[in-house]
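Chapter summary example.
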Amino acid sequence: MLATAKLFKNGHSQAVRLPKSCRMLGDEVWVHKNEVTGVVTLTPKKNKAADLDELFRLIEAAEVPEEFMAIINTNGTHE
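The structure predicted for these 79 residues follows.
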């Protein structure tokens, strides 16, 4: 999708007003500028707490085979 965004000054900084179709969640983005082409890319910064919540959900949902658990003894090392 190609859209036009407006540039404006915000104090001593330049800002971009994104169109509604390009809105991002969160309060911050990563900014990358390709020095060869001059293309600027904005990537949403993920919320670290949400990332951890997702990690714990994945761990909880993971199915661990009984064979795997059988080779771990009570002190956490392999038999």
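To summarize the output: The first helix runs from residue 48 to 61.
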